[in-house]
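queue> pop job 88
queue> type: inverse folding (structure -> sequence)
queue> payload:
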């Protein structure tokens, strides 16, 4: 194949423009992104080598090398990772494979990205960050295990087009050369590079090396100075990172900043995490976990093809970042790393699906996450609220699907109610604590907004009796109340379903007598109204639920309420 010039996919160009012009006030992170990709690529080749030894090509150790050339004004990031075929280069670098990205970008354009860099940070611009500092980027790569002649050379100036051509490459992996912009030459400086690597990539598991030249005074065999010997120049390859797996260290050894940087590495997020959970499990199952709750929801939270959040390692060796069994779907917002001491290194995807160790790990992780959330709710109410606003909707799925933890999850739910101010919440526990004498059930009403629900005539009698009613305004709440039918021995009742009238036994008898009498009195009127409304209602009856309004619509106790009907209608059911 000869050299050909191609256009970036439109979305890639938009993304490039965003990155170059409005983003990343901190340009240093281009190096973090490229090192992170290099480290991912080494993870992949080493994992692949368990099944296919041919990819090793005599280089069993992962390595990332940084090379600067002051004369050419370039910095090169070279890895011996998995590399890419020409198709992979075009797919991974020239287009955006992730289908949700297009919608996300369309959405971004409507917002002012310059003011909200975190929006794009959630998405992770990765490779394109190179164009913040370079006006030309050259990538040479060869897929591990493939023919040496089957390499690829890709180049772009970030202006909408790129070129690709075949290029022989001796060693496996990828080499990315940035031709630095005139004002970005500081990235050639050894100490600048050192400090960036220490700050952002210290925990990377493979050595990040650089050739450094030092002038030395020669010493004798016993280390004594030799008079008049002058100085000599020595070039050595030095490792810049400590390579300490951060999750394997004890909590007291890890600084806040290190936790943060590692979070950004695993999550592709731009912001600090909201909460860090670092623990190790011993006993039946031995593993270490470093988990994070993000501060904001990622754009692909509700997309089926989203990236999984928790990576699986076995004794420091990366295994996979898409183990579905590790974390249940309703906790899919959790990011981080789990490192097991029990699994074999050559564990395959099929084994992972069935593995009892994985099931044990999952159980422990779920328990730990739920207890952390419970503790946050008690002790860090503001943080919990911030979390709940972002991820409450997802957490609620657990009430439906995770039967074993349902009770604990119920305690994590928050709702607005007739007794909370708009925008503030109550838990079911607090609701029950506030229940006045005589109230035996928990009441709720479902609908699209608090403002609309506050007008509901169904609430009149509850207001009068000072019984609190929960406002369930999230569409998933309909499913929540199907799962949570009872809390603390008290039934949850919809105020607009069936004959739900808060009354003591005595009051009920009294009302019944009154109603019988009234029915006699108004019997003709009721049958008249029923006749007029004909097929549109099932029954017309006198009610004691209203105090101010003349009439209201009530659903059958076992029927669908108005909100559920609306949701089903919207779904075309
Ligand atoms: P992300 O890392 O979030 O997937 P990037 O923009 O950083 O996004 O990289 C895009 C893709 O390009 C990667 O997913 C990977 O498939 C490929 N890639 C980038 N750098 C390398 C590399 N050094 N070696 C192999 N593949 C790479
Ligand atoms: Mg990346």
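queue> result:
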């Amino acid at each position: 194949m000869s050299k050909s010039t191609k256009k970036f996919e439109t979305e890639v160009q938009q993304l490039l423009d965003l990155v170059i012009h409005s983003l990343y006030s901190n340009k240093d992170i281009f190096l973090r992104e490229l090192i992170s990709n290099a480290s991912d690529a080494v993870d992949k080749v080493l994992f692949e080598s368990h099944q296919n030894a041919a990819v090793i090509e005599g280089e069993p150790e992962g390595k990332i090398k940084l090379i600067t050339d002051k004369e050419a004004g370039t910095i090169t990031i070279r890895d011996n990772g998995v590399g890419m075929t020409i198709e992979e280069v075009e797919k991974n670098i020239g287009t955006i494979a992730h289908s949700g990205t297009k919608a996300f970008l369309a959405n971004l354009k409507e917002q002012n990205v310059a003011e909200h860099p975190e929006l794009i940070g959630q998405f992770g611009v990765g490779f394109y960050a190179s164009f913040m500092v370079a006006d030309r980027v050259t990538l040479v790569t060869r897929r591990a295990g493939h023919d040496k002649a089957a390499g690829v050379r890709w180049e772009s100036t970030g202006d909408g087009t790129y070129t690709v051509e075949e290029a022989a490459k001796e060693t496996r992996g990828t080499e990315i050369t940035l031709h630095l912009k005139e004002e970005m030459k500081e990235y050639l400086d050894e100490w600048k590079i050192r400090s960036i690597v220490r700050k952002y990539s210290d925990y990377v598991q493979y050595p990040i090396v650089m050739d450094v030249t030092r002038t030395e005074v020669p010493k004798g065999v016993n280390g004594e100075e030799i008079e008049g010997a002058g100085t000599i120049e020595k070039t050595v390859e030095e490792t810049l990172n400590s390579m300490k797996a951060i999750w394997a260290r004890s909590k007291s050894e890890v600084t806040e900043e290190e936790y943060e940087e590692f979070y950004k590495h695993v999550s592709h997020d731009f912001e600090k995490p909201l909460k860090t959970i670092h623990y190790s499990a011993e006993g039946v199952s031995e593993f270490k976990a470093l988990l994070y709750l993000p501060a904001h929801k990622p754009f692909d939270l509700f997309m089926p093809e989203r990236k999984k959040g928790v990576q699986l390692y076995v004794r420091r060796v990366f295994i996979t970042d898409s183990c579905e069994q590790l974390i249940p779907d309703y906790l899919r917002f959790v990011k981080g790393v789990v490192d097991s001491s029990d699994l074999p290194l050559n564990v395959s995807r099929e084994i992972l699906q069935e593995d009892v160790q994985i099931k044990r790990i999952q159980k422990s992780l779920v328990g730990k996450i739920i207890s952390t959330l419970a503790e946050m709710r008690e002790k860090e109410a503001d943080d919990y609220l911030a979390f709940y606003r972002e991820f409450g909707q997802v957490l609620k799925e657990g009430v439906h699907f995770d039967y074993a933890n349902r009770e604990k999850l119920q305690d994590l739910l928050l709702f607005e109610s007739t007794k909370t101010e708009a925008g503030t919440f109550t838990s079911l526990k607090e609701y029950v604590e506030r229940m006045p004498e005589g109230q035996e059930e928990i009441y709720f009403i479902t609908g699209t907004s608090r403002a609309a629900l506050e007008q509901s005539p169904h609430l009149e009698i509850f207001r009068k009796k000072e019984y609190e009613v929960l406002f369930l305004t999230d569409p998933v709440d309909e499913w929540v109340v199907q799962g949570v039918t009872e809390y603390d021995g008290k039934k949850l009742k919809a105020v607009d379903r069936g004959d739900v009238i808060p009354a003591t036994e005595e009051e009920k008898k009294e009302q019944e007598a009154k109603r019988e009498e009234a029915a006699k009195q108004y019997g003709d009127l009721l049958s008249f109204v029923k006749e007029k409304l004909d097929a549109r209602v099932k029954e017309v009856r006198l009610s004691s639920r209203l105090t101010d309004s003349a009439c209201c619509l009530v659903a059958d106790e076992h029927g669908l309420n108005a909100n559920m009907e609306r949701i089903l209608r919207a779904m075309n059911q």
